[in-house]
Write a structure and sequence with these properties.
It holds the Pfam family Cystatin. The chain is α+β, with helices and mostly antiparallel strands. The chain has a single domain, classed as Nuclear Transport Factor 2, Chain: A (Roll), CATH 3.10.450.10. Helix content is 22%, strand content 44%. The protein has a 4-stranded antiparallel β-sheet with strand order 1-2-3-4.
Amino acid sequence: MVAPINPQRGFENIPRYTELSRMAIDDFNSQNNKRYEFVKNLTVNISLAAGLWCRITFQARDTDDATTDALKTFQTSAYI
């Protein structure tokens, strides 16, 4: 049996999901010697399967690059 994937439209930026995105970008920064700053979640999809799988697409800004304000898109998966 496959668990359905449920888009969380309208709830993308609730604290639970933004905290997961912030943790993901902090982990990316520490592994890659970067300083991206979380901006906002774009999409959140969840699936209930003996817990909660969250697949999040979010935007972050590179604070080390003063020449551009361009946002970068990231994705993360988390099991909570």
